[in-house]
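Quarterly update from the structural biology core.
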Amino acid sequence: MTQHGQGRSGNRPMTQFQKPSDDEIKKIIVGGDVELLVKLADRVGETLADQKLTTSQIRNVFGTARQIQMRWGKPGSEAERQAYRDAVLLRPKLAYFAEREKQSKGGKSEGMETLQTVLEPALKLLSDNGQPNRERFERFVELFEAIVAYHKKHGGK
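Predicted structure, tokenized:
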């Protein structure tokens, strides 16, 4: 990994983020690999803190994911279909926030773009043969929640 200067902790070198593979994301969201979830969340949380992504920027999207989680209904229900639809629509929301960050920082996007590279592939796995899958969405929320926790642990503001 390439060093780019000092990270948030002062002595810790900031490292270039290595995007997780599609297989890693699939093992977490589809397979439920909790150990891999924790390792990835730690790596992403540290990177987001180094990239100075604020807690409020993360929580803007995380809050929406939590609202969807609370509204998710029984299998086959209208509530489930609407929640799934809203979950899929998180993908363009992430893209919008990443672009907005890039515009506000003079063409430099880091934190939201990093978050997008992790969460978007996970969001693509929320259905099973075209049917909404609540268990996969729950794993997505667990991953996102763990990223938020590790962001804070690594000094995210």
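Residues 22-153 form one domain.
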